[in-house]
Amino acid sequence: MAVVPGARPWRVLRLFWPRSSRGRARLALFLISCALAIMTVSSVYYSNEHRRHLHDIEKLSQASAVLAQSHSHFLQATTALASMTFLRDESYFQQFQREFTASRNAVEAARGIAASLGLWGDVAFLQQLGARMDAFHDGVERASTEFLRGDLFRAIEMGRQLTPESDAIAAELGAASDAWLAMVALERQSAERATWTALLIQAALGGFSLLVAAITASVFQKSILEPLAALRRAARAIAGGNLSVRAPVRGPEEMVSLAEAFNSMTEALIDRNRELERHIADLQQAQDTIWRMAYYDPLTGLPNRHLFEDRLQMAMAQARRRGLQVGVLFLDLDRFKLVNDSFGHAFGDKLLRLVARRLGQAIDTGQTLARTGGDEFIVLLPDVERESEVEEAARRLLDVMQMPFELEGRELYVTASIGVVLFPLHGEDPQTLVRNADIAMYRAKESGRNTYEVYSALLDLGMVQRLSMESDLHRALQREELVLHYQPIVNVETGEIVGVEALVRWLHPERGVLYPDAFIPLAEDSGLIVPLGEWVLRAACRQAIAWQEAGAGPLFISVNLSPRQMRQELASVVAQVLRETGLSPSHLMLEVTEGAIMVEMERAISLLLSLRGMGVQVCVDDFGTGHSSLSHLKMLPVDVIKVDRSFVWDMVGNRADAAIVASVVTLAQALGLRVIAEGVETEEQAALLRRMGCREMQGFLFSRPLPEAEMTELLARGRGLVPRAP
């Protein structure tokens, strides 16, 4: 670019001065980077020069010392020659040889050092000096031989001829040593000059960097900070309501652009203020919508996870103050994905709305039902005094899910699995409680679905502990740590024991007696339930035969089946066990749960028909808790119905439970089925069941589950447990 004649230098400089703060920062960074690069390069260069000088000084010092030693040894060698001349003693000649050899070796060492430094003139000089020394040595040997053994006068003449050469060699050795000492001094001076030069360059570049930084800071202050301060003052004035204030437009391009945008915004604010008045109502409505979207599920209208956790937090704080508990039920629909896959997501959404409506009707006032996503619902039960309240709520939710859903001309049965937790027993913050409830829910699914599971630390054991338990269970089968206890089933009309239910116990070597709920779920998950169930079946049949042979009479033995066993070749296993033990099929009763039947109903019915075809009695266990309902009972090939203990426990004070039990008994009798009520613990329960027409019962009122020896003793006393009915 051509410079305008007469233009001032600063005006010319402005042509190259960046207009934006970013360009100015880049220029400053470039200059500082150049200075740092030059400092780095010069530092490396002069450091290498300094090291080279130090290396040369060291080598030159070594060479000077070596030549000084050579000079000293040469002088001692000539002194030995002089002593030999006067004393005519051959030992002085040997001394000469030693001193000369040391001097000659020193010359060679100095020549090697000179070669390593690249001083080839000195190498040639030392090589010539070495040759002269060798020639001198040869002459001395000849003269010494003549002196000691030959012509004395001839030897003296030869020695006189060698003396000038000796003096010359000694002088040259001394001069060379002095010259190399001078070179050491010169190298030291060069090293000092290199060091000072490096320091001056570093100082200059450092000062330049500081100058650039100072200039940059000054420019930043003028072009950035001051305009920003003016802009801040204008913003404060506008925030105070003074819309007439404008930001000054000055500084680099960015600040100019920012100030112009700020002023444009101010103009726009004046216009927007007028529009805002018209939009206040719309904004309020939008705010309400956003709040509802943030805290409520758009599909069902239920609270979502955020609102649920807020309410849970408040319920926990209130429970702490009152010394109460808080219950959380985590509910997940069973096989809901099948509904979506079969009928589409729109159908599934409609079904979720029906489920939400039904669950909402089943909870009490003050309790919260929320949908956390997908087919998951969660219930908050504040101010809980006993764990049984939470379990009762879980059972109530499961009960309402037993009724079919009518949707688009279809009748659907949808069940749920529920995880139950209590604050503070199972967690002291919302996240932990929900996580543990989720774990318990999945455990309920693993247990066959359509049930609930209360969280325990066992559910949250790590994989190592689970594997250890599974390994112990493997060994338990091998080491015969499993035993059977037996609970009598009583005919209350005759007071006699008509059958016994076999209940497995694990005599763990470290944990003591473990009940089925502690290890049967693990056996079910790991597949050990199949060999374990076969062992229970075989041991129970053998024991029944032993009691019959001891005169106990034709009582039947009842054995529980797991859902996993029903998926195996169960009929052939049962037939084999009956053949091995010799037990009559009519004296064996196999208990299956409603849930196990309803999972694969056609397969289950086929299996039950095969068992009944052998003559084995089939019993539906825990009747009333599953989703089969009374309408399915007539389809099932069963002989006996067991009324679940949950209905028996509350039937005396709960009309609904009493009505359910009465309906089950009446329907069973109409279908020609026997009814056994389990969990009977009081005389009132037994009396009410008698009046309903139930004749067979079991429970703690009659006997707890007994070990083999105690059960044998009980049967030996005549099988009577209650007086005959009047």
Description:
The chain is an alpha/beta fold and 726 residues long. The chain folds into 3 domains: 21-218; 305-457, Reverse transcriptase/Diguanylate cyclase domain (Alpha-Beta Plaits, 2-Layer Sandwich), CATH 3.30.70.270; 480-716, TIM Barrel. Helix content is 64%, strand content 13%. It is built from 22 helices and 16 strands. The protein has helices at residues 9-16, 21-87, 90-117, 120-149, 152-239, 253-295, 305-322, 336-343, 345-362, 387-400, 430-446, 463-479, 516-526, 529-549, 563-566, 570-581, 594-599, 601-614, 645-650, 655-670, 683-692, 708-716, and strands spanning 325-333, 368-373, 376-384, 405-407, 410-412, 416-423, 452-454, 482-491, 496-508, 512-514, 556-560, 588-593, 617-623, 640-643, 674-678, 696-698. An 8-stranded mixed barrel has the order 8-9-11-12-13-14-15-16, surrounded by 5 helices. A 5-stranded mixed beta sheet has the order 2-3-1-6-7, with helices on both faces. It has a two-stranded antiparallel sheet with strand order 4-5. Helix 4 runs antiparallel to helix 5 (152-239). The chain is elongated. The chain starts with 8 loop residues before the first helix and ends in a 10-residue tail after the last helix. The model has no long low-confidence stretch (mean pLDDT 81).
